[in-house]
Amino acid sequence: MQPIRLIRSILTVGGWTLLSRGAGFARDVMMAAYLGAGPVADAFNVAFSLPNMFRRFFAEGAFNMAFVPMFSKKLEAGEGAKGFVSDVFNGLAVILIIFSVIGTLAMPWLVWAMASGFAGDARFDMAVTFGQICFSYILFISLVALLSGVLNAYSHFTEAGFVPVLMNFIFIIAMLIASWAGWGMGLTLAWTVPITGIAQLAFTWVAAHRIGFRFHPSWPKMTPELKRLTAIAAPAVLAGGVVQINLLVGRQVASYTEGAVSWLVYADRLYQLPLGVVGIAIGTVLLPDLSRRLRAGDVEGGRASFNRGAEFALLLTIPAAVALVVMAIPLTTVLYQRGAFGAEDARMTALALAIYGVGLPAFVLQKVFQPLYYARENTCAPFNYALVSMLVNVVIAVVLMPLIGFVAAALATTLAGWVMVWQLWRGAQSMGPEAHFDVRMRQRLFRIIGASLVMGGVLWVGDMLFADAMTLHGWRYAALAGVIVAGMATYGLAGFALGAFRLSDLELLRRQR
């Protein structure tokens, strides 16, 4: 197997994720214009969140966190990797089919558990109907996540990265057709969900077939490798469940304020852009890379991968966090306020966005630290840390809800994220040298923070100067873009001046091509 080129691979995954999030943002702008933050939007957002919530610990949070290290090590050692994948695929498919049927039948209870504030109004019945249509998506997207893990282990990051892009394009096309044909937008979006799942599974199936993987549906066999995978994955399943409980608490808090579920969702979409481009990209690349380096005994290579990955993550994440906090109101006003999405919706979304922005570095650092554990097939420690994080989230959300309303959900998520990072960092101190920050990383961290604060000052001044222009229909996009470009240029100049990054870094990127 060829070694993974870390920075190049991160840029590849990040580039596709950026395109996906850009298409996803276009999708959300269209949804905001068609549905606003009203009952239909709340109902669809809850319904769509259900299969996405469960897929995170059936696939990304569980099997992939346990599967990718095992699969990567089998590839490195040449130990029957293809047969292992076939057994896992069939086992996961059987579990998901059964779960999909149960979840569809139990949809009223699932909606109540997700948003009990909907009970007694039209949102509840709509959410149940939409949820029953959407829920089969968990089957398709979880298998897609498994196949994407295979592609990533083979360094086929482009094929795996295109999958979410495909989903967003299908959603955009569906809304355009529904608007032209006069279809109900809520039902159109609900039916689009399983259609996108089928399309994504077909695409990754063909991509895996091209690199030599053939899948023949059959009853799964409980092989020793599958038993070991199950034992390793079980804590990750539980950890994924804990994370989803955090989301569930947030939805419950928001469901008692009409429109709040949608405000949180739209704010989530904006901060998920840098999180996906940076955090998810780095986590996706680091996990197979660290797994293979540990299998080969390459301690220095593992430390370099971890440190450069963390450095690259913070280089992009810290300025993004500052920008989300400083520019929260201009961003939500310019990007979302139109059609059924009013000024009050924009202000409430901006409040949540600023709070999420404070937590953005924590959410990204989790993606950096977790591969240190999963590459060692240690899924128990992250589970224990997730339990503590969950308790912090629940206590803050429940205690503060009567005082500050739906904002308690965003604040609880952010604080719980930082608690999780602290635990992951503390636990990593007992690992080998590859889990410790080197001198370069520590020095550059403070310089990155300094450059980001300088940029934040420029953004604040730009917002003050061009606030009126950003409210004019014909100029608001240009005004917002101008302020953002000025901030990016300032960050670049300040970063070079303070030594947050150097020209030699560009040479490293050139060699990675």
What does this protein look like?
By secondary structure, the chain is an all-alpha fold. Helices cover 83% and strands 0% of the residues. It folds into 2 domains: 6-437, no CATH class; 440-513, no CATH class. The longest helix is centred in the middle third of the chain and has 37 residues, at 260-296. The two termini are 18 Å apart.
Q: What's the short story on this structure?
A:
The protein is an all-alpha fold and 513 residues long. It is built from 19 helices and no strands.
Number of domains: 2
* Approximate helicity band: over 70%
Order of helices and strands: HHHHHHHHHHHHHHHHHHH
Shape category: globular
The largest β sheet comes out as: none
- How many angstroms separate the termini? 18 Å
Proportion of strand residues: under 5%
Global Rg? 22 Å
Give the count of helical stretches: 19
| Class per helix and strand makeup | mainly alpha
Q: How confident overall, as mean pLDDT?
A: 80
Counted beta strands: 0
Low-confidence stretches: 506-513
Helices and strands in order, then pairings?
Elements lengths: L5 H30 L3 H22 L2 H15 L3 H25 L1 H8 L7 H13 L2 H17 L3 H25 L3 H26 L13 H32 L4 H37 L2 H28 L1 H9 L6 H32 L5 H25 L2 H22 L10 H27 L10 H23 L4 H9 L2
Could you name the key traits of this structure?
513 residues, mainly alpha, 2 domains, 0% strand, disordered C terminus
